[in-house]
Amino acid sequence: MSSSSLYSINVHCNGETFESEIHGFCFKNTDTIRVTMKRNATFLHFKKRIQSFIASGNVSKMTYQNPIFFENGQCKFFPLKIRDDEDVESMFLSHEHSGMDCIELYITLQPCIPSQQSQLTDQDPAGGDAADDAQWSDELNPEAEVEVDVIDEEEEETEIQVDHILNNDDEDEAQPPPIPPTHAYIPPQHMTNMALNDDEMSDSVFYNPYVIECRNMLCKFRLAASYKKKNDSWEIASIDPPHSCVATTVEQDHRKLSTTLICRDILPLVNKDPSVKVSIIISHIQTTYNYTPSYKKAWIARTKAVEQVFGNWEDSFKELPRFLWALKTYVPGTVAILETVPAMMPDGTCATGNRIFHRLFWAFDPCIRGFAFCKPLLQIDGTWLYGKYKGTLLMAVAQDGNNNVFPIAFALVEGETAGGWGFFLRHLRTHVAPQANLCLISDRHAAIESAYNNHDNGWHDPPSTHVYCIRHIAQNFMRAIKDKNLRKKVVNAGYALTQPSFQYYRDEIRLSNEDAGRWINNIPVEQWTRAFDGGRRWGHMTTNIVECMNGVFKGIRNLPITALVRSTYYRLASMFATRGERWSAVLMSGQVFSECCMKVMKEESIKATTHAVTVFDRQRQNFSVQETMGNSDGRPNLAYAVKLHRSWCDCGKFQAFRIPCSHVIAACAYTRQDAYTHLSDVYKANTIMNVYSQSFSVLPMEDYWPPYEGDFVWHNEEMRRKKKGRPNSTRIRTEMDSTDKMIRLCSICRQPGHNKNNCPNQGASSRS
């Protein structure tokens, strides 16, 4: 909400307040006045504005009916006393998050006290009797920080407002007109001092007297001063009695340490990381000012800083169409699909030229082109936003030949619903990944399953494969069976590289618990095991690469929508520039394959030197490879069939990862073949360079952007966050996050309970 926005306030007075068990703080039998107020109003301006509408007394206390929403949807009101600028700011923020039409305010009035006017015999310089100039003042409010009473209100155009003189940050805002007097007031002695009036007449000037009191209710300190306009100076008339109060406690916070001051101080922090923790902000202010602001004050300051750096949330929706239009103009090939719903008028008719935001899909052309050179698999997942408006950020992520994460598409939807996932998968298939034989990895969310099985979304023609994350399978298993030992066997069955290994674990599960056996049999083995996937997973059993992007983009999930989309563009542009430069240098050095591939080949080549190879068919390249040395994982030494013409090895590694295993390398060495010829082209440095060969274009400054002539897009009030408290920024741990304690084995005999230093077989092995 901009600082110039107007709020409607229902001011209630002359009634009764009471506590309702259901609704909380309420009032009845009140007189109601409708007042409008600017968003950046100070406390003094706020009080004077309300006082100008009241003729029956002085405003002594103001209480805001603060709505609090609970998880069951119930709303209960709590009283919030308005006593200073911080309270006014809290009231406006609470109202913005509540979604209510008007601010409900109850005020308590003090009766007017009649007074006698001072009688002066001399004429004032303006030509009238001084006795005719009534002097007015509000009752001093002991709860206010500083209370100022204007006595002489002539020459309104030259009067200096006290909130401007003392501390007004907004010098451009037009000050409200002087509040008309509502009652007479008995001025104290220092205000009727004849010497002061004589001085006014002798100098041909007017004084505006002010009265300042101590904020401490027990202290009787009063200070009377006047501003001399001619000399631009202040003159103190009296100080009586002396300021005698002593603070009994040392406050960690300071009243002058406002949210505006904190906001100004933390702008560099928020610009670098918009999700900077409130605790870090508090520590920063402690270091800078030696005061400790409250959590609430620091949180409000961060919200203000985010709006100053990245824009207002509501205005961001209006800026979104123009930004998307600029992307399509300056980055040809960019896909940006904005789905909106009609904006309805109160009478039920559509508002022409206005739309309400519903969903957004976007993907950048360099990412779309680069995906053709990545592994033919996609991992998809969703993560929530935690800004002012609710929503879910959906992502599709791939992986290049060096195991680098490669984001390719994004979407903002209302939640992980069938409609939201259908919107994302449909445009992902149409505009980004139309190729056949793709493998889509996700959790077992019912909305994803429904969207994938919908033939209108295009994932069945051309064909593709949908498989599940093994961690989510284990989570669902734990919820149904609740057995940690069997859970581990389910994970081992999923990770098994060969069908005999899978069958071994499945039989153990079935013999231990028949219900568990039936549970895993209800899921097609092609969707959750590596032994039956035909190599389509490329060894990926989880959705870790897309879930790690949730942490990478955690900061931008706190931003307004246009700033969020803009951040994805600039982050990916930086990633392309960095990786493109790196792989260009790799090609110049003469390196042929990626580092991760070379590392695996080196490890497998060392193992291959211990294998014995038997040729069965040199023409068809069929071999039997016998392991001759013990494996570090305790497996027995076995003989494996290798069929090079079919890219097959009985161990399963060759088919799963598209990288030759030790048995394939041994067979190639026996026949003097180069094992690197059996590597997939995905692992070649030239292929990885092609992933990042397309660069992002630099967006010019906004003044050069083409005009947008489409409909206005407004924020969706249904997506506004209304739940009490800040949204969760950390995922709640579930059964999926539990880990079993690793059993330590002896490195000599591979048995638990001891180590190599006290192994009973240590001496025997050394003598042999």
Describe the main β-sheet briefly.
Answer: 8 strands, mixed
Show unreliable segments.
Answer: 114-204
Count of helices? Answer: 22
Total domain count = 6
What is the strand content? 15-25%
Q: Tell me the total number of β-strands.
A: 22
Query: What Rg do the Cα atoms give?
Result: 37 Å
Distance between the termini: 82 Å
Helix content: 25-40%
Structural shape: elongated
Mean pLDDT, all residues? 82
SSE-based structural type: alpha+beta
Region (Disordered): 117-141
Protein name: SWIM-type domain-containing protein
InterPro entries: MULE_transposase_dom (IPR018289), Znf_PMZ (IPR006564), Znf_SWIM (IPR007527)
Biased composition (Acidic residues): 130-141
In a few lines, what is going on in this structure?
GO terms for molecular function: zinc ion binding. With 768 residues, the protein is an alpha+beta fold.
Can you walk through the features of this model?
By secondary structure, this protein is an alpha+beta fold. The chain folds into 6 domains: 6-110, Ubiquitin-like (UB roll) (Roll), CATH 3.10.20.90; 130-239, no CATH class; 259-310, no CATH class; 311-468 and 542-592, no CATH class; 470-539, no CATH class; 593-683, no CATH class. Helix content is 33%, strand content 20%. It is built from 22 helices and 22 strands. The protein is elongated, with a radius of gyration of 37 Å. Residues 640-672 form the SWIM-type domain. Keywords: Metal-binding, Zinc, Zinc-finger.
